[in-house]
Amino acid sequence: MSKEVATELPLASSYCDQSNPFMAQYLLTSQGFDFPDLNNANACQLCIGNGTTITINAAAASTIKWWGNEADNCLFLAAKNITTGTGVDVNIELANFDEFAKNNNLPQFDFVTINGVWSWISEKERRDILNFLSKHVKAGGVCQVSYLAAPGNTNMGPIVEVLHRFMADNLPGNMPADEKIAKAAELVVEIGKANPAVLIRVPKLLQDLAAAAAGKDDGEFAKNFLSKHWRCFHLREMAAMFDSIDFGFLSSNLPKDQLVYTQLTDEEAEYIEQYRGTTLYETCRDFLLNREYRSDLFCNGARQLTANQYVQKYNSLTLMLTADLTDFDYKIKCPGGDKDLDRGLYEPLLVAFNDYVPHAIGEVRNALKQFNAEIADNDIDMAINTLVSIGMLVPCADPSNITEKLVEQCNIVNAAILSDAGMNIRTLASPVLGFGYSLTDIEYRMLQLVTQNDDMQPLSIIEKLLESVIVGDLKLKDVDTTSEDELIEFLKKTVTKFTTFTMPLLYKLGII
C-alpha cells in the first residue's frame, strides 16, 4: 500500500467477515452463478494489515490455501508474529502490489479478497491490483472488493480537501500524526458552527470530528478520510475498471442486499425491480439508500448454471443456524413496518436447523418435503435466502473436511487470542464454519473467564464483569453504568444468555 497517507498512521486492521469465501459462494450460487470448488482452493488477501483475517481464515479451513501481501513493514512484522506464534500455514510476503504481481511462483487463485484498501490508495496502485488480478486469478475465479461508495460519501470530498490543505499549509511537517488529526478536526468543528450546507448533509460528521479532536475515535476517522488518495466510487466506475481486465460485476457481497424489502419501501423496491440483474439496479439502490459503503463480487469469466447444475450445486451448500430462537417472533424490520414471515414455512425450516450443526440445503429441502409435500422449492429457497440475509443462517464449510489437525490448529489460534487482550482481536477461528466467528467485548471477556478459570459459576462471572466495568476495562453501550441496579440486572441477563446459548453454540462451532 502507498505510504502517502496524510496522517502517517498505519491503517487499522481487524477481522473482516467479507473475506469469507463460503459466503461469496452461497451468494453467487443462490443467484445461479458458478463458483470455484472450495474443497481444493487457493485464496489471496491483498494487503493483509496485521494479519488477523488471513490467519483466522487459514486456520479455520483445511481445504483453502491462503496467500497475502503487505507493504508496510510494521504491519507485516505484526502479521508474521501472529502466523508464526500460532503455527498457521499461510504464505505472506513483504511486497507492494506491483512486486507481488511479479511473483511467478504464485498459484492461480480461486478467490481474492481486498478490504479497506481500494478507496485509500493511488491510481497507480489500483492499476497494479488490476494487473495482479488479470495475471493471477484463474478463469472463473472471483474477486471481492470493498470501497467507499458514492453517493453516500460524495459530500465528504470538500471536507477532506479542507483537512488536507490545513494540515499541509498550517501544521509543521514534524508534528506527530495524532496531533495533526486533532488540530484538523478542531478546525472543521469550528467551521461547523457556521452550519455550512455540506456539513448539514452529513449529520453524523461533527460527532466524528469531535471524537477525532478529542483523540477518541481509535484512528477510524483518520483511516477513512485522511489518506492523500481518499476517493469514493460509483459502481459504474468500479465495473468499468474491472471490465478492462475482463472481470464482470456479478453481485453485492453484502448478504442483506439480497433482501431488498428490508432496505427500501415497497414502492421503491417495486420501482427498481425492473432493473434487476444490471448495474443500474444497484446504482438506483445506492441512490435511494444514500449508500456509503459497498462490497462487491467480480468474476473472471462468469458462467451461468443450468437448471440441473443449479439444483446440484445449491443443494450441496452447507448452512448452520447461529441465532438464538428463544425470542424470535417471525417478523423482519422493514422501512414500511415489520413484515410477518409465514410460520407454516419458516417454523419447520428452523426446526430442521435447530440442532445447531451444519446441514446441506438438499437435506433440509427433503426434510421439509416430507413434512409438507405442498411446499415449493422456490419458497424454500426464498426462505433460506431470507434467513441468510438477516444473519440467522450462516454458510459454512463441508463437514467432511473437519479433521483433528484442523480442530487442533483452531484451538491454538483461539487460545492465543483469548490469552492476550492486548491483541484486540475479538474473532475466533471456527473449524465448523471455515472462517471467523466474532464476539462482542463482553462475550470475549466472559469466554476468557470461563476458559481460564476452572468451574467459573454465573455469580462469579457477574462479579468479575462488574469489577471490569468499575475500573474501566470493560465499556458497555446502551447501559446506564451509574445505576448499580440497572447494571447488575443487565449483567444477570447477559450472563444467563451466555451460559445457556452462547457457550453451547461455541462448542458446536468447534471454537472451545
In short:
The chain is of the alpha/beta class and 512 residues long. The protein has helices spanning 21-30, 52-60, 73-86, 97-101, 123-136, 156-170, 177-192, 197-200, 205-213, 220-225, 235-243, 266-272, 279-289, 307-316, 343-353, 361-371, 377-389, 404-419, 441-452, 458-471, 484-508, and strands spanning 41-46, 64-70, 91-94, 109-114, 137-148, 248-252, 293-299, 318-321, 331-332, 339-340, 359-360, 393-396, 427-430, 435-438.
Taking the alpha carbons of the first and last residues, their distance comes to 36 Å
Q: In what range is the share of β-strand residues? A: 5-15%
> What are the segments in which pLDDT stays under 50 over at least 5 consecutive residues?
1-12
**What is the overall silhouette?**
globular
> How many beta-strand elements?
14
Instruction: Please list the strands of the largest sheet in the order they lie side by side.
Output: 3-2-1-4-5-7-6
What this model shows, in words?
The structure is a single chain. Residues 1-12 have low confidence and may be disordered. It is built from 21 helices and 14 strands. It has 512 residues and is an alpha/beta fold. The protein has helices at residues 21-30, 52-60, 73-86, 97-101, 123-136, 156-170, 177-192, 197-200, 205-213, 220-225, 235-243, 266-272, 279-289, 307-316, 343-353, 361-371, 377-389, 404-419, 441-452, 458-471, 484-508, and strands spanning 41-46, 64-70, 91-94, 109-114, 137-148, 248-252, 293-299, 318-321, 331-332, 339-340, 359-360, 393-396, 427-430, 435-438.
